[in-house]
Amino acid sequence: MQYLRRPGRGGGTAEGAGRGNALMQVGEEIAHYLRVEIQNTKELLLTTSQNADKLRDIIKRTSEMNYRLFLSRLPPVQGNNAHGHGLTNELESTGSGNQAMNIGGTAPENTRRSIICRLCYSRGACMLMLPCRHICACKSCEVILTHCPICISPKASAAAVKFV
């Protein structure tokens, strides 16, 4: 049985080889283009990553400077500690959650013990900073804190406490 050649399907071996070479050349050009694009993408990714690292560092340093500036503008309450905050010796000496100070100098059993928020100085502090365990902020101010205003340790979490 004879096989018939259809027109337009590579009539001879030379023509078929020519088309094969042309297709190989196009494939190589596409592969080269893709290699160049991959290299450009890798370089762009590296540059973007380096820029992101630089921006994170700038944000971190700016945040720390803003926090220090914020702390430096806080008004003193009673005396000053090494950080320039107005804290009583009683507060500075206690590292636990029992930091209520005696108001008015009367006998402790006759007074309601409270502590003032170290940020707004208008509400009672009821938030326990963790891990340092200082009670130093009201609920409204605690959400903006990133560091404890007493010891300046980074705040991992906070918990509401009640004085009874």
TrEMBL record:
Pfam families: zf-C3HC4_3. The keyword NAD does not apply. Residues 117-151 form the RING-type domain. One of its GO terms (molecular function) is ubiquitin-protein transferase activity. Transmembrane segments: none annotated. InterPro entries: Znf_RING, Znf_RING/FYVE/PHD. Keywords: Metal-binding, Zinc, Zinc-finger. This is RING-type domain-containing protein. It comes from Panicum hallii.
